[in-house]
Amino acid sequence: MTEVTKNIVIFGEGAGKSSVINLIAGKPLAKVSSDLTRCTLAWKEYSLPEAFGGSRYNLFDTMGIENSELELDFKSYLAALADARNLIKTLDDRGGIHLLLYCIGKGRATATLQVNYRLFYEILYERKVPIVLIITHLEAERVMEDWWERNRATLDEYDIRVARHACITTVGDDRSKYDNSQRTIRRLLQDSASNEPVKRGTFVGGRSRGLAASFGRLLRTRPDPNVRALQYKLRDRCGMKKNVAQKVANRII
Ligand SMILES: Nc1nc2c(ncn2[C@@H]2O[C@H](COP(=O)(O)OP(=O)(O)OP(=O)(O)O)[C@@H](O)[C@H]2O)c(=O)[nH]1
Ligand SMILES: [Mg+2]
Question: Residue 124: pLDDT above 90?
Fold first, then answer.
């Protein structure tokens, strides 16, 4: 029987995305940040050396998405979103995606988590792809799963709904927690990745946008209604200010 290959995208702030890839692979494939500088500068693909659960896996590491309105940070925020959009298009051309991993750190659940969840899952991926939550940095917990018990009510309040979750550590100091984390996350991939690849499909406005937008620019008419609809969504669902939503919409349309 031929094995299917599943495409898994991992996103989130700099909370350990690359480390999670290495944990799943069981070897250091992806470069991990060693200081405060951002490490992953554009999406990158890693093919897992071993198949499990009857599938092979391609993991797509993405740029961290720290949102800040400081100009320099805002530029890299926009770059991260443009890169995420580019990955979706690439995967559409390659057949689609099977699972989204939202990777967060052990801190308390906050409103930023909600914004990023909505931005990626709801707006960029249009809720079409299964999503799971990975919580890292939990090695100091006696029982790592306790994080979930403490935070699940807050996640519910923020309306962050995921098919499954994994409370883990990616560091190997405590061998049994590390092994446990690896087993948990591999099982998660196996159980949560969709059987069929999902295509994100045409972006808001799709092909027709090109022509309409060019004419719009030529005639200096009002902006494309699809761009305006997206700006509205970004303001309404992600709480962005008007000028921020305009810039973001132009990067992800
Ligand atoms: N203690 C602890 N440290 C971790 C864990 N996971 C990641 N780290 C550390 O957190 C830092 C960031 O990890 P990365 O894997 O580079 O995070 P990232 O999300 O890929 O970061 P960017 O690519 O910059 O967005 C590194 O110093 C890691 O060693 C964990 O479970 N526990
Ligand atoms: Mg990284």
Answer: yes
